[in-house]
Amino acid sequence: MSRYLKFTALVAVVASLTFCFGFYSALRKNVVFDSIVKTVRYLKPAVADASAPELRLDMSDRTLLDTTLLPFHRMDVTVTDEDGGVLPIVAVVADQRDEAVALGDDGSLLRVETESCVDSGCARNIGRLTRPDGTRIDDIYDMMRIEVDGRPEWYVSYGQLDRTGYSKSLVISRVDLSTDADSDALIRVEPPVFQARPFSLQNGHAKRAAGGAIAYDPRDDSIVVTVGDYSLNGIANDFPGDVPPPQSPDSDLGKVLRVDRKTGESRIISSGHRNPQGLSISATGEIISTEHAPKGGDEINLIRDGQNYGWPNVSMGTVYGTYEFPQKPLVEGTEHGGYTPPISAFLPSPGIGAIIHAEGFNKAWDGDLIAATLKARSLFRVRRWENGSYTEQVYIGDRIRDLDIAGGNLVLGTDGGKIIILSPVENVEMARTEIGLHTNLNALSNCGSCHNLNYPASTPGAPHLRNLLGRNIASASDYDGYSDALKSRGDEVWTEDRLEAFLRDPQSFASGTAMPDLDLSDADISELMTQIKLLR
């Protein structure tokens, strides 16, 4: 009996010591803990997607979109997932003739007929992309189509974790879209043709700061790709070593790279970039990139070999929450601190994104740059001269993630799940108007004169409208101007019915509220209710 007691006691002691050591390792996150976690993650089988989700399309009528030189007909196609939720569009790419292919942020693919889009039949689902191992691809940056020996080839850029989950790389893969798949088909991208040098996730990262824009340069059969700093810049997140990755030749972060399409070998074209969202190569080989700055200072850059654009040592913006930036110029007192300055910068930041050269589109805009914006919800048309430039803002009303020219039409993809087709008016003389650019403003844009539509930060005169539906009435913590009537309803939640009642008659809903009676039409209220849902 004593022998069994001794054995039981020994087992109890060993188990206690193992538990204590394991608890200490987890608490301290030492090398033993890291090794265990890496092993478990590596051995855990990847879960492949079973089928692509159903997508639903909703059409709206054409309207006239006005600009200074060129009016457009506008058609919106709204794409939602099988649950009715918004499906953000990350890329739109011109295909053959008058067609384009749109890519959702979950890998869903849609073929869009841009020239004859009059009903829901002009957009149809053609499957969904997955990673090479069949798992969900949920970190997609861009897509492009090129011609090789008279046949199309498609490429996508996306983020790829290693098997342990401790490091990440930006990769580019080829995908076979030679024939349209069924709507529920899953299409595996091929193993990467290019993989950027990995970076550690020890200090976190921001995948929205990945860059990832890709463009083809037929002059040397290469792919040009932008790689963001993933916020590893010493301002948002710490980085290993003494040199910020965008300034280090030993890192691909914060760079524009040229990749040999056949071998996958790459070299650095330029450095010192933060979050280069847009990329375009003209017919003559000019490389243009756009870049998100911090608070203010979004850039359009002319990319040249060997140039350093300064980030994070210089910026035209400031650190969020401050009115300064920790400048570290190469040469004191020089333009842009001695680094290569942008050809254009914007203050405040419009959230500049994708950009294209207008070539063979329309004589009114050919030769210009057309840029998408997120925060400004507009297109920016930039015309350059030798001694200056000008920018025309064309309000669209949606966060525009990507754009391309297909069949003589301008196609936009938005964060709100819209594919917007802009068709130039053929007979401009018939489109003359005395109203001008005000025709582009929608019902929600008028709310922006008082309310903050872009960030969850209230103005002195009105509460912000981000995430309004579902939150309590009179609940914006940074706004103290609510009327007593609204405060008395603070236990109630903003539902669609309550919000519509408030918009129709503010005083009946909450007597004494500062909200004026806007005399909104049924169409205005319907438009507002649709758009407010997207302010999240």
TrEMBL record:
It comes from the Bacteria. This is Glucose / Sorbosone dehydrogenase. PANTHER family: ALDOSE SUGAR DEHYDROGENASE YLII, HEDGEHOG-INTERACTING PROTEIN. Transmembrane segments: none annotated. It comes from Paracoccus isoporae. GO terms for molecular function: electron transfer activity; heme binding; metal ion binding. Keywords: Heme, Iron, Metal-binding. Residues 403-536 form the Cytochrome c domain.
